[in-house]
Amino acid sequence: MPFNVAILTISDRSARGERPDLSGPALIQAVQTQHWQIVSTAIVPDEIEQIRQTLQAWTQGQNIDLILTTGGTGFAPRDVTPEATRLVLERLTPGLDEAMRAASLKITPHAMLSRAVSGICASTLIINLPGSPRGAVENFQTIAPVLPHAIELLREAKNAEDGHRASSFTSPPPSASPS
Fold this sequence. Notes:
The protein is an alpha/beta fold. The protein has helices at about 10-15, 25-35, 50-60, 80-90, 95-105, 135-145, 145-155, and strands at about 5-10, 35-45, 65-70, 90, 120, 125-130.
């Protein structure tokens, strides 16, 4: 099932044209390997209102299933992506955030400094990713296997609930008790 994806790069320097956006194109390539369609991209500065407005516009009537943001999730004073994203979200999806941080911690202790959030607005899933191309792609690859099912659930697809069955999971055998 094809999905419509938008990618929002949040960077003061890239928005001013002082530095090329490397993370957005890296994410485009990662998304395209999943055979999902990129329907919109944008670059905005680290400004809460501009981030919020873009996210809001993309979640209203544009048929976008997934929005990936890259940048602005750290500790720097201008890193405001999580705050702007929370203004738009109706429901949080903390399992995605936890999975990305857990996977990243195996690579770098700096993963503890991520303030990235994810959640749902209407039927669109929004996920904050790091600003570095490598970090953005690694985090995306961590959660990519569950995204089709998540989007099917948001779309209320008829067979979406089938993924909840434990068809491939078998419970461990009962342990033998000593006699």
